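Record pair follows.
FIRST:
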Amino acid sequence: MEPKFKAKLVRGRQYSKFVPDGAQGDFIVFKHGVAVTISAETKHHLEQYAVDPVQTTFSTGEVEENYECKFAFEELDESP
């Protein structure tokens, strides 16, 4: 069985992701601080594309830009 995860939006107020489902599709709407159950495939997509650029400026004047995911994830325990 494919693992399931809880995704909680921690950066931003709302985020929508289109999830294809056969001929139709649907949106998952994430709201800040509210955990939503997702598949491993959706988690991978969010880790890759739902990111914010974050700049760090050092005392030397050097600026470093990194990308941080908008979500925090927790794997669900499937044991009975």
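SECOND:
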Amino acid sequence: MAKYVISKIEHHKVDIIRSQTFDTSDQNAWEKFRELAQYNLGDRIDEFPKKAPKNVDIWFDLLSWVSNSEYEDEKEDWWTFNKGGYQVTITLQDEKGKEVKLKQD
């Protein structure tokens, strides 16, 4: 007897917003962010001053190298739920993995 697999795939869109609040006069925060950014920058961390700069553009550049998981706040916006649903694809495959039927809602 032939075996089949039916799969339903939900197609969602989610926006993940990560944010970090900082004060350009906070030397401790600057040192912490330099340390975190060094994981991604390596020796290029020396391009950033050791003293906290007043220039927000330099903070922006450094913080762009900090891993997403290190940011203090994270919010998810599942816009497919909030703004009107999502699409579903239904596939049917035979026992060899060949798609034999496809339906999209």
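COMMENT: The longest helix spans residues 27-41.
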